[in-house]
Structures are given as C-alpha cells and as structure tokens.
Amino acid sequence: MRRSYRYVGPAELKAAVRPGSGGRRIGSAADFDGWVAGRSAAELAEPFTFVVGADGVLLLAPRRSEHVACAGGRPVLSAGEISFAREAGRWVVGDVSNHSTGYCPDVSSWPSVAQALDRAGVGRPSGFTHEVVFRRCPGCQEHNIVREGDFVCVFCGGDLPAQWNVDPLTESAGS
C-alpha cells in the first residue's frame, strides 16, 4: 500500500485551482517525448514542478507552478521538483526532490516517483537526489522542514516526531 498525500498548504491556493489547470500527464515514453520536444533550452535549464497522481501517472508543470494546481487539487502519491538532462542520447533525471510545501510528501514516496519515471521511459537515480524531511509540530501544529537531522520545531522549539506526521488523515492508495 502506498500513502496518498492530501494538500495541506494554504487554502487560498487550492481554491484558485480551476478545472483543466493540472499539469501535463506523462503516462508513457511517447507522452514524455512529445512534452519535452515542446520545451525550449531555457525551460529545460530549470527544474519543473511535478506530482505523481493517485493513479501513478507523472504530471509536469513549469517550476513556478503550485503543486496543488499541477495535481488539479487532487491527492498525490508524491510531489516535488525535477530536472532533466540528455545523457548518452536519452533523457534522464538530473535532479529530483520531494520539496513540496503544499503536500509535504515523505521521502518514502520515492517508489511512486520511480514507477512513474519508468513508465515515462526516463532514466532515473535510485532515490531522491535531495530529500526533504517534513514534520508537523505536535505542540504548535506548524509544518516544518527538518534540517541536518535536528528534529526541533523552528516555530516553538518543541520536539518533532521521528515519523512522518504532517497529515494524520492521509489515505492509502492501492499499489
């Protein structure tokens, strides 16, 4: 079973999501080839916003897009930023992170990203190249990014749990 992540960011960002505003669905190598062919060198020089939808399909949007817009407001299996490069005549992931303060996915969401990239025919690393550890403070309820293994809330100084706890109401999705 894979964890599904609900949007936990500012409500006004989710309220601004409009039907059809989601990211570009990349469900196959042909989808990726078509998408990447339409990108300029300048676009490809920057990372893109990505989510893996609850159906396991990769969705891509320009970097400055909100993850919740890329996902069409729906729950995701992972979210973050991703860059692509050409290597030995094929497309590969340059960097990939789970950095999404709207969904705060756990680093354990990597298998969903790996499967979506494999489906898209894109070479990938064995895990996130930059892992972001998210926790919700049990005391003040603020979302935190844990840096350098220091599990202390930056807002109130309280201890943060060792296990992911950002959204206690998350659901599990079938694998």
TrEMBL record:
Organism domain of life: Bacteria
Record-given protein name: Zinc ribbon domain-containing protein
Organism: Nonomuraea bangladeshensis
